[in-house]
Specification:
This protein has 8 helices and 2 strands. By secondary structure, it is mainly alpha-helical. The protein has one domain: Arc Repressor Mutant, subunit A, CATH 1.10.10.10. The longest helix is centred in the C-terminal third of the chain and has 18 residues. The N and C termini lie far apart (42 Å).
């Protein structure tokens, strides 16, 4: 199983916002701390807002923040929503599936079960569990006073 770059960045955004709860964070802050281009980040922020994970405010004093309590954000659900219809192999693709084994393949069923087990395992974790008492993450994500100047 491979996590897409989009989902990986989305999790960075959510963790950044959770660590910096209580204030609006800017897209440029997130981009800088998460090593992501602002243009790519804008698309991901927009999608997370559409899914109800982020509140965004435009303008000079704008920014973004979590729209939900970190304890209510299940990691597996985030991945499922960000990558609907994820085709782990060709036989899972709606289009361009040329596999001649599709009607007889037991591997397909095993892979489907493995993917569901992967998401189910991630469902056991909340955003809060990823960031709470994680001093190393806080050191990476909380700006020091000279960064704000």
């Amino acid at each position: 199983m491979r996590i897409t770059k989009r989902s990986n960045i989305a999790m960075r955004v959510l963790m950044f916002c959770a660590v910096n709860s209580g204030r609006l964070v800017t897209k440029s802050e997130v981009a800088g701390r998460c090593n992501v281009s602002e243009s790519h980040l804008a698309q991901i922020i927009n999608r997370l807002a559409q899914l109800g994970y982020l509140n965004t405010l435009r303008g000079r004093n704008g920014g973004l923040e979590l729209a939900r309590d970190p304890a209510d954000i299940r990691i597996g659900k985030v991945f499922r929503l960000l990558e609907p219809g994820f085709a782990i192999t060709e036989c899972f693709a709606d289009a361009d599936n040329s596999c001649p084994l599709i009607d007889a393949c037991r591997l397909r069923l095993a892979i489907a079960d493995a993917v569901e087990a992967f998401y189910a395992h991630l469902d056991a974790f909340t955003l809060d569990q990823l960031v709470c008492d994680n001093a190393a993450l806080v050191d990476l994500f909380v700006p020091v006073a000279c960064d704000r100047a």
